[in-house]
Design a protein that fits this description.
Helix 3 crosses helix 11, helix 10 packs across helix 11 (250-274) and helix 11 packs across helix 12 (281-299). The chain has helices at residues 2-14, 30-44, 67-81, 99-110, 133-142, 148-153, 184-192, 208-216, 224-227, 230-244, 250-274, 281-299, and strands at 91-94, 114-115, 117-119, 123-127, 157-161, 172-174, 197-199, 220-222. The strands form two sheets. It has a five-stranded parallel β-sheet with strand order 2-1-6-7-8, with helices on both faces. Strands 3-4-5 form a three-stranded antiparallel β-sheet. With 303 residues, it is α/β, with parallel strands linked by helices. Helix 8 links the parallel strand 7 and strand 8 (220-222).
Length: 303
């Protein structure tokens, strides 16, 4: 992690990006991918889809920015549908304020839910009227500022230092910020407040004891290895477009993304049921992933 932080800091300095942000807030975005891809082409003299998340003018894909957040909500929506429920009218709490969080919030609202929280590394917002996505994008994607500016511009919003989104009463929780951000006490608060589903948008945001507590208390829990696969899936779609020298419309990519996420849900659900673990989507995701690798190895004579 220290090496990655140091590398990204030096890279940002080299391309003239702002490095005056807290540790953990420096990530690989479109501008960093552009620099890396340019250097790859210069060094290798090759134009390949070796890096994804590229700009639209040099091989990138529409909907890649939105993909992880949208994909998370597509899977969550399918999960609810298969349990005779819907996103419509639900109150959702989201952590984070980056690509995953912003576009998860946007898609939740498009499906009729109300998202009332978001967060960054210094604090969090509670907005009882629902997060203003346009304002959030302006602050985070354009100004690259802190959520204090959201609260300053939005009279209905409350800003709180530190962490606390999981204490807000909700139907659905979507951790979209960072690893180990949803702890056992947070899980207990979600259960006590009547939450029905937790789906991970970040990589491993829920600690193991919190995961077990949520499952033991009847919460529909989907791990990130399944629910946050939309970004990687759309990277594969980007590589497909590069290979074919095509550029699909936003609607085409989005439709394919939705189909992929719906299929992922049913794959993990089916795997759990086949091994008498119905409703255990952690086990289902582990089995489905293992079987896919194993079957490919067997088909190619590796085992």
């Amino acid at each position: 992690m220290a090496f990655c932080q140091s590398f990204m800091t030096e890279l940002c300095k080299h391309i003239g990006a702002d490095t005056d942000v807290p540790a953990g807030d420096i990530g690989v975005g479109g501008r960093e991918i552009g620099f890396l891809f340019g250097q790859y082409k210069r060094i290798r003299d090759l134009y390949e889809g070796v890096l994804t998340g590229k700009g639209l003018t040099y091989g990138g894909s529409l909907a890649r920015t939105e993909a992880t957040g949208y994909g998370l909500v597509y899977l969550t929506d399918e999960l609810l549908k298969c349990h005779n429920n819907t996103m419509e009218g639900k109150t959702v709490v989201v952590s984070g304020a980056g690509n995953v969080a912003i576009y998860a919030i946007e898609k939740c609202q498009q499906l009729g839910a109300k998202v009332v929280t978001c967060s960054d590394s210094t604090g969090w917002i509670y907005d009882a009227n629902g997060i203003d996505v346009a304002l959030l994008k302006e602050i985070k994607e354009v100004k690259r500022a802190r959520l204090t500016e959201y609260a300053a511009a939005r009279p209905t919003a409350e800003y709180h230092e530190g962490r606390g989104v999981w204490a807000i009463k909700c139907d659905i929780a979507l951790p979209c910020a960072t690893q180990n951000e949803l702890l056992i006490d947070d899980a207990k608060a979600l259960v006590a407040n009547g939450c029905i589903a937790v789906c991970e948008g970040a990589n491993m945001p829920t600690t193991l004891d919190a995961t077990k507590y949520l499952q033991e208390n009847g919460i529909l829990f989907v791990p990130g290895k399944a629910s946050n696969a939309g970004g990687v899936a759309t990277s594969a779609l980007e590589m497909s477009q590069n290979s074919e020298r095509l550029s699909w419309t936003f609607e085409e990519v989005d439709s394919k993304l939705k189909d992929i996420m719906v299929n992922i849900y049913h794959n993990i659900d089916d795997a759990a049921k086949r091994y008498n673990k119905e409703g255990d989507y952690v086990t289902g995701a582990n089995i489905a992933g293992f079987e896919k690798v194993l079957n490919a190895m067997l088909a190619q004579g590796v085992c």
